[in-house]
Amino acid sequence: MRIALGVEYDGTLFNGWQAQPNQRTVQGTLEAAISQVANCDTTIHAAGRTDAGVHALNQVIHFDTDAVRNDRSWLLGVNANLPNDVVVNWVKQVNDEFHSRFSAQRRQYRYMVLNRLSRSATQHKRMWWFYKPLDIEQMQLAANRLLGQHDFSALRAKECQAKSPIKTLDAITVTRRGDCIAVDVVARSFLHHMVRNIMGVLTAVGEGKQPVDWVDAVIASKNRDKAGVTAPPEGLYLSDVIYPDEYALPTVSALPVLW
Are strands 55-64 and 236-242 parallel, antiparallel or unpaired? Predict the structure, then answer.
């Protein structure tokens, strides 16, 4: 049978998602826990990979198994074998057509910024501290220039292995609550470091360093060196993965990202 799971993790102490020899990774940690419950080595597949330091609120994974367990037993059994910084929030048996990566219609990321003069003692591994004042209205105007289909070569990491730099952004919103700014980005798929590089562009506009129409020039250049900085990983969250309604996957009841 094929089992899907919704996973939440704090990426601070993980060396990214993908399993690597002699490295603490989210995939390796989950595979070890699931294998304990399944009583055999188990390989998992994820909706998307995250870099070292990046978090997830509803990463979706799946695996195939001959082990017969009900959903509650999978949930409690796997969680009993996981460390405190990763947890399974839901479990659901799915048909063989489901694939956590290829069945996904959209992925949503949220990037969190702490925008105040003083740093945070409690959120320094969960938000980007940006001490210069940011104008979110200007940031939103800049973000609007990124909507739709573009060649995002200027906003991809140099080591990105995607076959094409052309992606389509479905939505991007900038909101503020007090000193906290959230940027939510939705697309079917993303390039390596794309969201973090988008944040480098938006903050350059938000602090008044660049005008809004600079975004057009950055995209047109197709040159990574013409864009802004790459924002640090700790502010980035894979917040949700959207699938066709036919799969009826559970939703996460609470997403603890400050709001």
Answer: parallel
Closest CA to 138 of 194, 198, 204, 224: 204
Q: Phi and psi dihedrals of 88, rounded to 5? A: -95, 125
| DSSP codes of every residue in 189-203 | ---TTHHHHHHHHHH
Task: Report, as residue numbers or ranges, the catalytic residues.
Answer: 51
**What would the pLDDT profile of 149-189 be if each residue is shown by its tens digit?**
999 999 999 888 888 999 999 999 999 999 999 999 999 99
Please answer whether residues 235 and 127 qualify as being in contact, where contact means their C-beta atoms are separated by less than 8 angstroms: yes
CA angle 47, 164, 109 (to 5 degrees): 35
Residue 246: how many other CB atoms lie within 10 Å = 10
Is there a contact between 233 and 110 (Cβ–Cβ < 8 Å)?
no
**Nearest-CA neighbor of 204 among 170, 160, 155?**
155
Q: How far apart are CA 62 and CA 94, in angstroms?
A: 9
Question: pTM of this prediction?
Answer: 0.94
Could you tell me which of 33, 41, 47, 38 has the C-alpha nearest to residue 1?
A: 38
Locate the DSSP E strands across 42-85.
Answer: 45-46, 55-64
